[in-house]
Specification:
globular, about 950 residues, single chain, 14 helices, 52 strands, alpha+beta, eight-stranded parallel beta sheet
């Protein structure tokens, strides 16, 4: 009897499973589709919607994935268009047709059926069995949805989709907005993400939105119900729970009229609220279940308790001040040319960003898909979303209805996600700010869960240096009172580490986030070429490689990468710390932690375009100055003499979840050998949340330093991994340059005479009298192709073990002790004489030119030996001890047997380096625009 009962039970279960599998409520349309390109746009007139299409394609996917379109015929070269961005291997812009047969289950009879195309560029139209479905879709930010109820019955049908990826609206100058561009994301044709049919009863839940209220321990719920039948009544049950158990449940009797019905509920939470933030990203699940006779439906969403608000210049999350440590995401996915639609791809992005200390991503002029928000929700990332807009001629015209609709779609589709914190109308928007103000007020009134701003910076005259009237937060490079990013500071002001941007933000009454800080170019990593196995060909990288090979410089590529990358890393560190030191700044947005392969190949990242480290620094090192809890130091300069005292103030930034009680900060000033010059600790004290807490001052005599030293100041929160480091350089005050038989001169005639006599000469002419590029401390800004009006060098490259630097401690790249030396210099081009001289210091050229550049070289000339230095060493030595120290190191080298140049040049060649008069004004930071 028991066996019979088990048999009956199993038979029933199998019958149920078989029935369910034949009558699902959801059918995936992923797989093979019929396909045809329609480059002449004749498909509609010729009735392709009722024909068998000649080719096939896999969806989700794109024509680029499948190899359709016009094959690329360009070869690698350092010229446009190859150096503008990565090159599509196959390009297609125009209509394309996709068709698939579907079998509608019998259980769908009488159901409402919806077609979902999760992401498309740009416009879609749909036919079923040759009959056109009413309407079209044109969103770049949200799924394209079609009601196929009138077109589908049980049995076989043919669904045909026409995708047209041609530009529909002028959303950007030069097609640079990242929702529609070939700079990063490509202008792909296809359908990516979910492609499906869903069956629902005549009465169903169309939309469910949660508005959590942390302060009042409740959730306001808006449930939109569609009723395709007659008026009826039913019950709406709402369950809210966490991962550990239920939080609340309410049931409400509802009366449903034909059409759309909006049900508004308030659900109190009985237990203590578990908040959502970067350190505890607790998610709640909301399930709404609707039951009428005879229809049933349910919908489930996740949300988090995160009340985001502004309090003057402070950004508050659940009543606690937060600081955004961010970078941009510009839809850079070089294997596919489109964003990941599954969690895995976004987990790599967000987990890597978190490893490097970040808690914030700004999606520049585009909106990511659902998978990005879901991963960000789970990891506690704060996201800024933007309309697909980067326009300099914006006004109320034919674009207005589209932009309003896109804004509404973003808020409806992604508004529940707690990670969706900030909304900007677009990047660097210009022209009609009255139109922008109206659009801003529209979104603010529609959804109070986010903070809003008019534009992510602007160059529009009369705007951009102070917030617009209705901005909740403000993103800028400068204010009416000064710069708030290093571009305007680091090459024009001598290094000071006690400065911040307080003067620039004084009086700011909304949170300020610094706009696109950094943009320090790093030389291309040519090893990256082999990674491009997808739809894009790195002709820009290949062009650089071929140019180096042609010039005999291929062996330098890795050295160029490391030298420029390490310079960029130290500049990013100072950018971040200066922002974190400023009380009136609420965050920064780097451009960029990872490379931007478009806009003239803007390789500004410490990571490559694949979110992988270039090896120029470690994540743990970067995180020292970019973490929730960070030690900071304020000190006056980078270079000292032994007669001075080193003074520094130490602060601790605490953006953790709680006060750090009894915090003890250990500090040490030590040489490269780890031996301490001085060390100590600051008394235990609490570190409040959301504050830069001064913890103590260091005052340390440097009179024990008897030879040039590089010292490292470290500050560490005892018992934790929170530590940070800064370098200074100390040179002995009593230093005397004993020239011996070395002739040191700034006059060519004196140098020639001494060389003729067989002497050793250090020729250091006034740098203003030399032909060459303006000497700069900072590297190329963004890209030498996109911004060609700049000096265009990328930092120093040298061998720190070379005997010329035995008494001038240095690494193999630019560091702060080189600031005065580089900014008071000319960079010499030695392409025509590189076989006649040996550089002791190379200046790395930008990849667009790859010239041999130097500011310090040695050679033989006439009967003597010569060093030429185009950095000023002879003037203002008292104020700039690094000049005297480098001069001393070079002279001692020249006096030694190690000074034995291998090349030979002539006085005429040296004379060609000089001009007949003084040259040129200095480049201003903003002049590159």
């Amino acid at each position: 009897m028991r066996r019979i009962n088990i048999y009956i039970l199993l038979t029933g279960l199998l019958t149920c499973l078989f029935s369910c599998s034949n009558n699902p409520s959801h059918i995936s349309l992923a797989g093979e589709w019929e396909f045809a390109l329609d480059s002449t746009d004749t498909g509609i007139n010729e009735g392709w919607y009722s024909q068998t299409l000649p080719s096939t394609i896999q969806l989700p996917g794109t024509t680029d994935d499948a190899g359709y379109g016009t094959p690329n015929k360009l070869k690698p070269a350092l010229q446009k268009p190859q150096v503008l961005h990565l090159t599509r291997k196959n390009s297609y812009v125009g209509p394309a047709w996709y068709s698939k047969e579907v079998d509608i289950p019998s259980g769908w009879n009488g159901k409402n059926v919806e077609l979902k195309l999760e992401r498309v560029i740009w416009q879609t139209s749909v036919w079923v069995d040759g009959k056109r479905v009413e309407g079209m879709q044109e969103s770049l930010v949200a799924p394209h949805l079609y009601d196929l109820t009138e077109y589908l019955t049980p049995g076989k049908h043919k669904i045909t989709v026409r995708v047209d990826n041609r530009k529909r609206y002028d959303i950007t100058a030069g097609d640079m907005a990242h929702a529609y561009t070939n700079e990063t994301q490509i202008m792909w044709n296809g359908i990516i993400g979910e492609i499906s049919l869903t069956a629902k009863d005549a009465i169903s839940i169309r939309n469910l939105q949660a508005y959590p209220d942390y302060k009042n321990k409740q959730v306001r719920i808006k449930c939109q119900i569609n009723n395709a039948g007659a008026a009826t009544t039913g019950a709406l049950t709402t369950d809210i729970k966490t991962a550990t158990g239920p939080a609340t449940q309410i049931q409400q009797h509802v009366t449903l009229q034909p059409g759309e019905n909006l049900i508004d509920q308030v659900c109190p939470i009985k237990d203590d609220i578990q908040v959502w933030n970067e350190l505890s990203p607790t998610l709640y699940t909301l399930r709404a279940s609707l039951e009428t006779d005879p229809c049933k439906d349910s919908r489930e969403i996740k949300f988090g308790f995160r009340d985001l608000e502004k309090n003057g210049p402070a950004l508050l999350l659940n009543d606690r001040k937060i600081f955004l440590r961010g970078t941009l995401e510009c839809c850079i996915f070089p294997l596919t040319g489109y964003p990941p639609m599954e969690h895995e791809g976004w987990e790599k992005v967000f987990k890597t960003a978190r490893e490097w200390g970040l808690n914030h991503l700004r999606f520049h002029s585009w909106c990511p898909p659902k998978a990005a928000f879901e991963v960000a929700d789970s990891l506690g990332f704060y996201l800024q979303v933007e309309l697909p807009l980067w326009s300099t001629n914006l006004k109320k015209d034919e674009r207005a209805p589209y932009l309003y609709a896109e804004a509404d779609r973003i808020l409806e589709e992604y508004g529940n996600h707690p990670s969706f914190c900030l909304f900007s109308l677009g990047n660097e928007l210009q022209y009609d700010f009255e139109f922008l103000g109206a659009l801003l007020n529209h979104v603010k009134e529609k959804d109070p869960r986010h903070l809003y701003t008019t534009t992510s910076f602007t160059f529009e005259r009369g705007h951009g240096d102070w917030p617009e009237a209705d901005d909740d937060f403000f993103i800028t490079q400068w204010t009416r009172k000064g710069w708030v990013r290093g571009q305007g500071v680091f090459n024009t002001e001598s290094p000071r580490f006690d400065k911040d941007y307080s003067a620039s933000v004084e009086g700011m009454d909304v949170p300020l986030i610094t706009h696109e800080i950094g943009q320090y170019a790093v030389y291309p990593d040519l090893k990256e070429i082999e990674k491009y196995t997808g739809v894009l060909d790195p002709l820009n990288f290949k062009g650089v490689k071929e140019d180096l090979e042609k010039k005999g410089l291929a062996g330098k590529a890795d050295d160029y990468l490391m030298a420029t990358g390490r310079l960029a890393a130290l500049l990013y560190k100072e950018e971040i710390e200066r922002a974190m030191k400023t009380p009136g700044i609420s965050g920064f947005q780097l451009l960029d932690l990872h490379d931007f392969p478009g806009q003239g190949t803007a390789l500004v990242g410490l990571l490559n375009a694949f979110w992988e480290s270039k090896g120029v620094t470690e994540a743990a090192t970067f995180r020292q100055s970019c973490a929730p809890v960070t030690p900071l130091a304020r000190f006056a300069k980078a270079v000292y003499t032994s007669a001075e005292e080193f003074e520094a103030g130490i602060e601790m930034v605490n953006y953790s979840n709680s006060v750090i009680e009894d915090a003890v900060i250990d500090w040490k000033l030590a040489g490269r050998d780890g031996k301490a010059i001085a060390q100590g600790e600051f008394p235990a004290r609490p570190l409040p949340v959301g504050e830069n807490s001064p913890v103590g001052n260091i005052r340390c005599p440097l009179n024990t330093v008897t030879e040039a030293k590089e010292l490292t100041l470290s500050a560490t929160l005892r018992g934790s991994s929170c530590t940070n480091e800064w370098k200074i350089w100390v040179y002995p005050t009593s230093l005397s340059v004993d020239k011996g038989d070395i002739v040191v001169t700034d006059r060519l005639a004196t140098a020639e005479k001494a060389l003729q006599e067989g002497k050793k000469v250090l020729f250091n002419p006034p740098y203003e009298s030399l032909k060459g590029l303006e000497g700069k401390f900072v590297p190329v800004f963004w890209s030498p192709v996109h911004f060609p009006k700049q000096a265009g060098t990328m930092g120093l490259l040298l061998d720190p073990a070379h005997p010329a630097f035995a008494r001038f401690p240095t690494d193999g790249h630019t560091d702060w002790q080189w600031w005065r030396l580089t900014t008071q210099s000319k960079t010499l081009c030695i392409d025509s004489l590189y076989t006649e001289v040996t550089p002791l210091v190379e200046c790395v050229d930008n990849f667009a030119n790859n010239r041999r550049l130097t500011n310090l070289f040695e050679t033989n000339c006439l009967n003597g030996k010569l060093i030429v230095c185009s950095m000023d060493l002879l003037r203002e030595q008292a104020e700039n001890p690094e000049k005297k120290q480098l001069l001393y190191s070079l002279v001692e080298y020249m006096k030694s047997g190690a000074f034995n140049p291998s090349q030979q040049t002539s006085p005429a060649t040296i004379r060609q380096l000089l001009t007949t008069g003084q040259t040129g004004s200095r480049e201003k930071p903003e002049s590159i625009y």
